[in-house]
Write a structure and sequence with these properties.
By secondary structure, the chain is mainly α. Helix content is 59%, strand content 10%. It is elongated.
């Protein structure tokens, strides 16, 4: 096997582009994209994986741990693109536990809600028995029944406990919240935030970039709670509306004061003739006294 691998590497080094394409078309067994055979020269940490649209591309794998009550991201992790969901969920849960504990608010991670891609007997057993968390992970549809005779003791109990949790009323409610709020974070980070594509190299740099986007998401949540705007543009729009409202109120108050001043002046003008009639009446009385 080592001789064949050495010969394969020598052919790749000596061949030009045309020969490599011709060799790749006729390669047997059937041509496959494998991370064992291929490695990116510009980014060795990236892995070949299947995208959501069916294409194969060099990629990384991002996971978010979201608090379903507050909609805050408590953990944002980036893994190699060839790692499955069942291999990374425990690391993400442990990171979320650490972040919540460091925050110092006295909260704990007691429940784990995920989609069916994270369902695994080993994962359920470790999350329930070792991490002391209650799991709500739906089971994918299978054509055959499970055999528990060759499994460790306690694994069947954790499996059936997770099934009861998921099929219960609270489990269905949590799954609806997960599909709404967790997927929304990916839309904000990867879609609106522009973190779906990256031009950085190395998993550490990509992880820093993704965590920065998650921090911006949480900061926007805090801004929305304090001032009602989660983004700078909307905050500027609210400030403009507040300035226009203040200007309108100042104009109304000025017009009100002007109107009130005019009314007061008119009332004073109506009272002035009464004072002018007093000297006239005194003159009439004096003339009448002379005639008498």
């Amino acid at each position: 096997m080592e001789i064949h691998q050495f010969a394969f590497e020598m052919i790749l080094k000596a061949a030009n582009d045309e020969e490599l394409r011709r060799f790749d078309k006729s390669r047997k067994p059937k041509k496959k994209v494998s991370n064992e055979d291929w490695e990116s020269e510009t980014d060795p940490d990236s892995r070949i994986g299947k995208m959501k649209d069916g294409r194969f591309h060099l990629k990384y794998k991002a996971e978010n741990a979201v608090d379903l009550e507050t909609d805050l991201i408590v953990a944002a992790e980036v893994y190699h693109g060839d790692q499955g969901d069942t291999k990374t969920i425990e690391d993400t849960v442990n990171t979320a536990k650490t972040n919540v504990r460091v925050s110092g608010d006295g909260q704990e991670v007691k429940e784990v809600v995920a989609d069916k891609g994270y369902h695994s007997e080993q994962v359920l057993s470790r999350l329930q028995d070792e991490s002391q968390t209650r799991t709500y992970i739906p089971e994918p549809q299978r054509s055959s029944n499970r055999n528990w005779t060759d499994k460790p003791a306690g694994r069947e109990a954790s499996y059936r406990r997770n099934r009861r949790n998921t099929q219960g009323t609270r489990g269905r409610q949590l799954q609806r919240l997960r599909s709404e709020r967790v997927e929304r974070t990916f839309a904000h980070l990867c879609g609106t935030g522009g973190a779906r594509r990256t031009w950085l190299r190395g998993i550490e740099e990509v992880r820093k970039r993704y965590m920065s986007a998650a921090m911006a998401f949480n900061l926007g949540w805090i801004m929305r709670l304090l001032i009602g705007a989660g983004k700078p543009r909307y905050a500027a729009l609210l400030a403009e509306r507040a300035a226009l409202a203040f200007w309108g109120l100042s104009q109304l108050s000025q017009e009100f004061l002007t109107t009130l001043t005019n009314i007061t002046r008119r009332q004073n003008d109506c009272l002035r003739p009464i004072g002018n009639f007093l000297p006239v009446s005194n003159q009439i009385k004096s003339k009448l006294a002379r005639l008498a």
